């Protein structure tokens, strides 16, 4: 989705991709007059322009929770300090390139041009690429045809007259690294992003040093975006100093694990994104009565998130166990448990293969090396462990989808088999009403949802050790919760509405209405009734309310016998 934001005018819904076909159908004189009037608006010649892109919902890899939030908040902050903003979220390859092309024309007429990108980025052979949501990289040959080169982003800002700045929150792990085939043995796939040397007075500001990865964070925003939102609105703060302050904040928030890095050189004179009234007394005030934009307050960074970013690719059971002991009650603790289980299963299979090849027991020294994950003397047999599937009725694991639209599945059992066959899948949700299976690599939280069935694979000595979860939300599909309305706001999706309520402590319930003049979210201080159903709610209303329920497995199955 692409939106155009103009300072002082709030959000204008302009230029959805494919407008050329619409223009060909404008054949009346009135239509041509309206078109001319629309393009006569002064925003295209604004002094300060920005393009903000946030990709969260990738089609072929798991969900990134924060980039869309980061894009929404950074776009609002930039608009609040006088930028004319184009915002694009969850965009495909074609949409992303078209957004950059349109923005390059804005930048050519502007004094300052800023691009902010949050999402996945990869490095291949020392060249950097940003991933649109429909990228499916099976080989390094696919990179040139399914991704957007970072050089194209830098080129889009290069024609601005004084400041050309790219904020890049894309230094995450390459999600396709384990499955990409290399066409040539001399080619390489790096970790994080490679250094860049922008020309002229252009700055590219990575969220993490080259060759390292950035944390997505556990709050609404990533540590990098959170720091940017803190300093972006500050008046009379030189850009160079602002970048250094952001760097210091991120280092502090991540215990020195993540270090934002600047590439390129600024001119010798001070440059300010925002100047105080005394410094810009001759600048025309923005028109309109829009209230000032409120930038979200900084959210403390979860130490588990930053520590997990540092160890998630290690293959050390000891380190994973230490992490689980410290953070086992977090979602990252669940990721670590799944990773540890994967390593243990791999070791079990290796040992099994060795036993088949030789009937002689290995020497004691070798035996101790074969089972390091149990941390017990080699003379003591390891307790037998088995893989089990725990199922949970009327429960949905929210987030972490490997396929954003799910897969067709005839039954819960078939959905479980689909997940078991995918090494990246640790859990799943099955929608029996629509026969859709949602395999997941992880999840953000559990929620109560009538008709949903969830499954979680775990390894244990006993089947009665199935994990329990705490459900934070109770969701009602095609239902309304009457009463308690506090206010309504535009919301482009159900996820946006849920996030609005989650970030507002006074919100106890919500209803998302996807029809009418615009899609809207009704924030409620309480839910006065049980869910109600009607012809109106059948059009797609989804409601939810806060919950605090312990979720326990209602079925546990031995996967060796079943899958």
From TrEMBL:
The keyword Repeat applies. InterPro entries: Apple (IPR000177), Caspase-like_dom_sf (IPR029030), Caspase-related_regulators (IPR052039), Pan_app (IPR003609), Pept_C14_caspase (IPR011600), Pept_C14_p20 (IPR001309), Pept_C14A (IPR015917). PROSITE patterns: CASPASE_P20, PAN. One of its GO terms (cellular component) is extracellular region. Residues 46-175 form the Caspase family p20 domain. GO terms for molecular function: cysteine-type endopeptidase activity. Residues 382-461 form the Apple domain. It comes from the Bacteria. SMART domains: APPLE (SM00223), CASc (SM00115), PAN_AP (SM00473). GO terms for biological process: proteolysis. Residues 344-377 are annotated as: Disordered. Keywords: Disulfide bond, Repeat. Belongs to the peptidase C14A family. This is Peptidase C14 caspase catalytic subunit p20.
């Amino acid at each position: 989705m692409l939106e155009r934001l103009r300072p002082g005018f709030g959000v204008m819904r302009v230029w959805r991709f494919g407008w050329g076909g619409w223009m060909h159908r404008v054949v009346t004189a009135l239509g041509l007059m309206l078109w001319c009037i629309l393009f006569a608006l002064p925003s295209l010649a604004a002094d300060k322009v920005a393009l903000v892109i946030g990709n969260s919902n990738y089609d072929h890899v798991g969900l990134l929770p924060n980039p869309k939030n980061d894009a929404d908040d950074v776009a609002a902050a930039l608009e609040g300090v006088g930028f004319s903003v184009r915002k694009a979220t969850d965009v495909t390859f074609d949409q992303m390139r078209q957004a950059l092309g349109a923005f390059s024309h804005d930048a050519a007429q502007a004094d300052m041009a800023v691009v902010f990108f949050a999402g996945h980025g990869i490095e291949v052979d020392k060249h950097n690429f940003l991933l649109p949501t429909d990228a499916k990289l099976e080989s390094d040959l696919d990179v040139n045809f399914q991704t957007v080169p970072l050089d194209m982003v830098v080129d889009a800002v290069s024609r601005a007259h004084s400041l050309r700045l790219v904020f890049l929150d894309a230094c995450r792990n390459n999600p396709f690294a384990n499955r990409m085939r290399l066409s040539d043995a001399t080619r390489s796939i790096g970790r994080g992003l490679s250094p860049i040397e922008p020309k002229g007075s252009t700055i590219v500001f990575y969220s993490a040093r080259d060759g390292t990865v950035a944390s997505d964070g556990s709050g609404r925003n990533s540590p990098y975006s959170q720091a940017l939102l803190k300093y972006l609105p500050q008046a009379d703060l030189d850009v160079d100093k602002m970048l250094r302050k952001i760097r210091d904040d991120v280092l502090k928030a991540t215990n020195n694990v993540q270090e934002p890095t600047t590439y390129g050189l600024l001119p010798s004179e001070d440059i300010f994104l925002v100047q105080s009234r005394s410094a810009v007394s001759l600048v025309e005030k923005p028109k309109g009565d829009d209230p000032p934009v409120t930038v979200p307050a900084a959210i403390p960074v979860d130490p588990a998130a930053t520590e997990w970013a540092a160890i998630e690719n290690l293959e050390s059971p000891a380190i994973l166990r230490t992490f689980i002991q410290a953070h086992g009650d977090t979602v990252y603790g669940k990721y670590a448990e799944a990773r540890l289980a994967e390593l243990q299963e791999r070791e079990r299979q290796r040992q099994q293969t060795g036993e088949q090849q030789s009937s002689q027991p290995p020497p004691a020294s070798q035996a101790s090396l074969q089972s390091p994950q149990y941390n017990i003397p080699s003379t003591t047999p390891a307790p037998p462990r088995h893989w089990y599937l725990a199922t949970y009725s009327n429960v949905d694991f929210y987030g972490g989808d490997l396929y954003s639209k799910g897969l067709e599945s005839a039954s819960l059992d078939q959905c479980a088999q689909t997940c078991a066959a995918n090494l990246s899948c640790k859990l799943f949700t099955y929608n029996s009403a629509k026969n859709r299976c949602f395999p997941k690599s992880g999840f953000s939280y559990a929620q109560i949802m009538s008709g949903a069935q969830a499954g979680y694979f775990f390894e244990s000595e006993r089947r009665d050790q199935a994990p329990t979860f705490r459900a934070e939300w109770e969701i009602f599909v095609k239902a309304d919760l009457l009463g308690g309305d506090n206010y309504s706001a535009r919301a482009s999706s159900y996820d946006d509405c849920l996030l609005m309520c989650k970030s507002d402590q006074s919100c106890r319930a919500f209803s998302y209405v996807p029809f009418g003049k615009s899609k809207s979210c009704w924030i409620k201080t309480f839910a006065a009734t049980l869910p109600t159903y009607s012809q109106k709610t059948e059009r797609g209303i989804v409601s939810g309310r806060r919950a605090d329920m312990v979720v326990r497995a209602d079925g546990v199955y031995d996967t060796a016998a079943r899958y």
